[in-house]
Amino acid sequence: MSRATSESVQQPRGRNTAADTFSKSVLLIACLMIAQRAIGFFRSFYVCGALSADEVGQWDLAFNFLMLAAPLTVLGIPGAFGRFLAKYETRGAQKQFLSRTLSACLIMTVLTCTSLWLFSDVVAEYFFGNPDDRSFVRLLAIGLPAVIFFNFASSWFSAKRLNRFVFRIQFIQTLFFALACVTTLRLFTVSAQWVVVSYLASCLVGVLLAFGYVITDREGETCDSQAIKDDQATFWRSLLPFAIWVWVGNALENLFSLCDRLLLVNFYPNPDVEIQYLIGQYHTACIFPLLLMSIGAMAASTGMPYLAKDWEEGRTESVGRQMNLMIKAVGLICLTGSVVVMLVAPILFGEIWKDKFTLGEALLPLTLCFCSIGAVSAVSQNYVWCIEKAWITSCFVLLGLLVNFVAGYLLIGRFGIDGVVGSTLVAHLVVLLSVFGICIRYGLKLDNGVILIGIALLGIAGGKASALVGFLFIAVLLLWTSMIIDAQMRRSLIEQLKLRLRLV
Asked: How many C-beta neighbours within 10 Å does residue 426 have?
């Protein structure tokens, strides 16, 4: 690991705002993932146990709508922070960077929320499958700004390598969401609407907390007089092309979460089946898998600023080593998590949920497999971002989305929801292989451990037995050979772990 990425930035920019080291960031994000997942499990168990299957389906559609609308609204500008903020930070122009991007996001948010309010009937009919849900859509329009600026704040502090702030903001938001869900569902009507209200309120709490940190972070900031002279046209010509391609990629990736749902809403062959009930079943099959995918997204966003710094300073070999390590680490987490989930699934779906979501349990291997592949894909795209060719990954995601829709449309008539989920798996695999190909084309050397872990992840789709065989095979290689992690890296990781444990 390079000295630049292993030491804190020495120049103070305010009270207690020195950047976190890479190893500290990894530790913080690991703790955040554990805390979020534990709280998220509790919240998901409670919500799915309290709501009916069709109400769970409505909450699923609402959440995915917010995840799609938030980055679409702001053209993916926050998604470019990890790659571009370092350039302006070194010139003392981060205040300028923040004010310009924040102003642009505010304007676009107002326009989007106004449009959603005015066209709520159309959104309700084609997105939720029921024009009577217009009031539900207007609730989402009111709360969308909280989601947008919660994501904005998380991206800002992550790009500044202030991951201790990210930890606090996201932990408080997760905890508040869980507590609000329990409180509102007990005090008021048991419905998806109160789950949405709880989520929006938790994002607002996160925004308010982040605002206090922004004020602290700006204290004592120095400014380069030459940086101030940069006009806005130059600024946006540099930032916007990259941000737009990130936006396109994020929008297309979010459509993955919606494509299968929209196929079910608009093309399911049996009109006697309640679609929101069906989506509720699918939602339960995705609770654990989507947590694995979020681990990949979180690892990617955390690692990007450090990879970008090494890349800008010419340490391309260090970038390659870190990329291989990140891909293998995320793959191992997903493989282990998938095996554990499938082993405990009978208890969860049978004893805790009283066989209310039997279809969701049957879909679990496929959803675990495609979410694990998606997590690895998210990390792999960091290398393409380092070479500033985000448009290439957007093209690959578009290809995957087309595969998802076409295959799902052809299979839904014969195989129903199984065909839709299978098409999603194939689409994610197409994206991953395409990203691997372009990374290799531009100089990234993937080691054998990446390939072996990838094969083991595919075995998850076959069910509990094949997933367990793949896990044991990788475990043997990890413990007794150097095919997954070489001896030098193993010693380095053990030393880092011992150091962190002593500091704790």
From this structure: 15
Structure-block tokens of residue 158: 């992550």
Read off the tokens for 320.
């390659």
Asked if 97 contacts 238 with a C-beta cutoff of 8 angstroms, the reply is no
- For residue 61, give both structure tokens: 């559609």
Token representation of residue 496 = 């880092």
Which is nearest to 327 in space by CA: 450, 504, 188, 460? 450
Q: Are 14 and 221 in contact (CB under 8 A)?
A: yes
Contacts 24+ apart (CB under 8 A), 490-499: 492/1, 496/23, 499/23
In terms of Cβ atoms closer than 10 Å to its own Cβ (0-12, 13-18, 19+), residue 437 is exposed
Most confident of 222-236, 247-261, 387-401, 449-463: 449-463
Q: Tokens 């007089």, residue?
A: 225
Q: Which amino acid is at 263?
A: L
Half-sphere exposure of 433 (CA within 13 A, CB side): 11
Rounded to whole angstroms, the Cα distance separating 371 from 424 reads: 10
pLDDT in tens, 225-277: 444 445 555 666 666 666 677 667 667 776 777 788 888 878 888 777 777 78
Alpha-carbon distance of 16 to 126, in angstroms, equals 49
Whole-number Å distance between alpha carbons of 366 and 340? 15
| Residue length of the chain | 504
Alpha carbon dihedral 92, 96, 99, 105, in 10-degree steps, equals: -100
Q: Which residue has the tokens 């642009």?
A: 104
Encoding tokens for residue 379? 């990390």
Q: Model's pTM, two decimal places?
A: 0.64
